[in-house]
User: What shape does this take?
Amino acid sequence: MLKFDEVIKRNFEKLQLFVPIVARVHGENHPEFNDVHRLFDEISAKVKNAAPGKPDLDSELKQLREITNNYTVPDGVCESCEAVYSMLAEIDKAYQA
Assistant: This one.
């Protein structure tokens, strides 16, 4: 299993590109993704400002699990949305490990 910092390093740049695009494309039909976008921005800020080690993301990740029904991809979304949910789930799993 990958460590949290490895997962962040591998996925974060893609997430920073994909999350705003997916929010713009799917936010109207899937308003929960606007909350995903907001929470990702909060996570991103904490990760950027964190000292070495894991930042405290318990609250944000708990909310993401609730909003996304444990990262269940909604019907009728693009592959980018699926990728976002998959990467967020991987970050969450590595964080909990």
Residues 4-96 form one domain. Residues 5 and 97 are 12 Å apart (CA to CA). The longest helix spans residues 4-26. The chain has a mean pLDDT of 93.
